[in-house]
Records
---
Amino acid sequence: MKTQHVKLVEVGPRDGLQNEAQLFSVPERVQLIHLLAQAGLRFIEAGSFVSPKYIPQMTNTDQVLAQLTAFPNVRYAVLVPNIQGFNTAHAAGVKEISVFTAASETFTQRNINCSIDESFERFTPVIEAAKQAGILIRGYVSCAIACPYEGLISAKKVAQISERLYQLGCYEISLGDTIGVGTIPQVKILVKEAKSVLPTDVIAVHFHDTYGQALANIYASLEMDIRIIDSSVAGLGGCPYAKGASGNVATEEVVYLLNGLGLETGVDLTKLLEASRFVSEKLNRPSRSKVAQALLG
């Protein structure tokens, strides 16, 4: 394995909480993000500027941002779906945004009511405005392995969409196994195709643990020199399109794995457990992380 440092992108406060039925108050969201930053996580999705009608969990993200402490070397990112969301995010002073599409036409239609090409039409002005404002842009590709409607997705198609995002100006592309069905051979094919059109150091992987394969898939990605991993504290979240989906891979699990491999993350697992305990108590349920269950037990 090459580079010894792995970049962890903590998606719990956005991708995690937006899929939880329980609403967190602004102070609770702020406290969770602060606990994550204090644990050493340097890249944290703090929320999104989407319609409260569709995702009430992300209401008042501007207030969350206004109350966040500016820790050294910590970047807070937000997801924006369109130019209106970008304008609100820009006014809130964000330094990084995320845009998203999918590799499945049906999923894109069901999720954001447009085709893949139309999704690019929506966020191309966002990317251009962000570049002019000096704001970093991260791109997400959902259904990178399979779709709940179309089944398996071509890795070549995922690579083509990823390349489009990169050419538009996304500095990092996160490939998401949205319904968590991926296995090691599929992940290797996906990463190989992505590496054929993208620099290796801009590729991130985003695994859900629906079938318990996330850590194995992360290890396979590491073997192929991927060094950016998305994860969610306490395994927060899920996918409304995947029956029985157990959410994102838990950050605690990923840190434990990487520690065991001798790879650096800068994350203090003991402090991370404080964030895990906090959010699990608020949800009134045990953490979905086996590592948290073992160490907090």
---
Amino acid sequence: MYGAVMNTAASNSPLTTGTLTWTITPPSGTPVTVSAALSNIGGQFSHLVRVPFESIVGSATPSGTALILNSATTTYWRTNATLTLGTNTYPVTIPSAPGFFTFTTADRGKMEQVDLAVYAPGLEANPAPAAFSGAHHAAGGQFQMTVVGATGQTYTLLTSTNLVNWVTNFEFTCPNAATTLTDPITTNSPRRFYRIQSQ
């Protein structure tokens, strides 16, 4: 399944960050949960989720991590989906497609566009870049800085000793608008510069 994830709290703006978690429930047996990170796919879509299926041959035992693909038409429910952004989890709905899909062995490899909607107040389609709002040395000589960014947005902290060569220090997702970061390497470095880059 693929499609766009629209934020109904922000004029149906597309979301391209966060993790989509989708539980597919068969008519009998164990549901299967799949996850995918949202991204910008061709400027049109934001999720691509592969639903695992298995065809059982003879007396083989299913793995338990995939749905059973039968020769008879089988209906699977797909209404249990959530989007996680930072520390927040939002329920996801399917506004323009049914809450189920049907499969047989003839549908192996089938693709379907399923656009999703989520009500996530405060999240923007293209959040403003993060900015530093304060910094200080913590106990033990570690350098701490406060970053103001978009909640749920992932950023990369880059460091340099000469403002020419930049190295990725680590990636982080803002759990709140203001996030405190600690750089433990500063105790070994006499001079260090910082930059933040949106993902």
---
Amino acid sequence: MTKLKISIITSVYNNKETIKEAIESVLSQTYRNIEYIIVDGASTDGTVEIVQSYGSKINTFVSEADKGIYDGLNKGLGLATGDVIGFLHSDDLYENDKVIEEIAKAFEGGVDAVYGDLVYTAKEDTTKVLRYWKSRTFDKSLLAKGWMPAHPTFFVRKEVYEIYGKFDSSFKIAADYDFMLRVLSAGINVKYLPKILYKMRVGGESNKSIKNIIQKSKEDLKALKNNNVGGIYTLLYKNLSKIIQFVRR
């Protein structure tokens, strides 16, 4: 049986501080049939030189001006040739070197998508866990209650993007939420891996300022309405559920 090819996409712009760690997290994976794609938004801080130093270990590298992270991720989706596609943001890491191996095994049952748990860590110390996003087995009714898997843990078959489309770049912060609502409400077959797969540094785009938090809430509400999943109460439940993630750590 031919091993699944898994494409991993990183979209980056001016992040020389952590891009090396993200790259090493992918290259250290025990699963060998990985296609690694990095889409850079024309960085000027030395990020490009760091990526180029890895040579052919990065399967595809593009550096050109873009319209933001989702534009970059969509470019990556257009370049991906894998059976399954996942994302690793340039600030982040996989929990260990066997994550992709476990993801590949989970797809053996013929599911459309696989997801797991995520932890938020201190920016300067990724061993210090600040918040634990523990997920659960999927039930479509949970969407209207504000539940959603952590998008960075969400690995999806390429044909799902071909059927349901890529990220809607009219969203600046919540296109990932919109995408997951779109495909999960459509009834794709998903599997939950009850383990930590991903380590995310705090200080991401959606929560780095009050302005961005407000923008994120507006976009979340737009995504809910666009996908006929819920409204203001769903958004309220979604935000309240984050409090539990702090006590679970």
---
Amino acid sequence: MTLIRRLMKNSLIYAIGGALQKLAGFLLIPLYTHVLAVESYGVMEVLTTLTSSAFVLATLGLPSAFNKCYHRDCHDAEDQRTLVGTTMVLLTAVALATVVVGLLAPGLLARGLLGSAESRSLVTLSLVSAAAFAVAQLPLMLLRARESSVSYVSLSFFQFLAMLGLNLWLVGRLHLGVKGVLLGSIGASSVTFLASLPFLARHASLRFSPRLTRALLMFGLPMVPVAVSGWVMDMSDRWLLQLLDSPREVGLYGLGYRYGMLVEQVLVMPFQMAWSAFYFREAARPDAREIYARVFTWFVVVGGWVTLSIALGGEIALRLMADRSYWSGASVIPVVALAYFLNGLVYCVAPGVHLGKKTHFLPVLTGAGALSNVALNFWWIPQYGRMGAAAATLFSFGIMFALTAVLSRRAYGFRFEAGRIGKALLLLGTFAMFGLILPSESISELFIFRGPVLLVSAVWVGAWCLKDLGVKWVWSREPGQAWLRWVRPD
């Protein structure tokens, strides 16, 4: 179980860094929901889809490729310095191209996204925000490759403070609305990159390497269709809600989605960052398949409890943080949380695809999920509004997981601890059912009925983890004292 502990430790480190980058957005929810009308919040969510898609294109898959090239295609420290400089040139070039698009075609994009050309400036700022965020990823990519976890978290914390401070000033004090949100994002990315320049200067060379460029693009470009499919899964529903329903529905959905997507941010992304390096490193072990099966079971239990906590606690947090006019958006939180739990299971079975040498099927798998997502959105949004969009996300991630699991099992013989997984899912499902069907008309009722469910489920998960790690509970009595300790078996 030492391997499991190491994987959990690395996941926790990346969770802290990732959470800091996202925490500003949550701390600003009370400000956004009191300053922005629901319709304006909906406009911001639609613009977020543009920023996210532009970021995917502006990075060329380099965040995925950099770590691989840093360790496998660089022959020495000087090569690694050259890789940093080469990556900076590529990111800067594509970022500038993204900004040019924003300057040349803002009216066209505004009409397509928002139904009106009046928001040209917001569209331009959205693309500039994507470009700035793309360039600001370079120091974080380098810190991950160098396994400088403390520095990674420190830089993430600096970015968090910059985002929080700028938004409080621009939105809260200057009342710039959606424009202030976008300017705050641009400013936070810019100051983060500028603050990291001394670090980059020590580890970068100004030389440009065609050999390393080829290595980066050969690995990164095939990931772009995968990333685009991921964008379709994560973000296209906002635009479709705007097209098929109303900006108000987008605003309610967007806020509820933000809480449900916490599963992705605090669980799935940190796990994925640690998991890819872990399973490649342990692939040569004769018991690799057993290890992967055990990790899958752990993800179901621990990740299932995290999902349950967000599904039940998300509505409490939303009501405490947001204006009353946004409260009805909480209805999508459990569905979205479960959807991203399924996305985490996709990453769990990914070793079978990679080690079984079936990576050429990845665009097919993600494409199937993306196409089903768009089709289901067109079908369900006119009938069910935001709940239809949430259900489409859930079903499309389910399709992706099913296809990936089948391919992984056939290509590599990926194993599952079916009995243990089934019992865990049955118990977690029972907790979820009790938490969601009990009355919840007021915040006090939410605390009264969901609190005990979360507490009991936490005790169960904790006991399961300790038992699986081989930790025994020993109650020791001595004269004058009674104390509890953990004893690890020999």
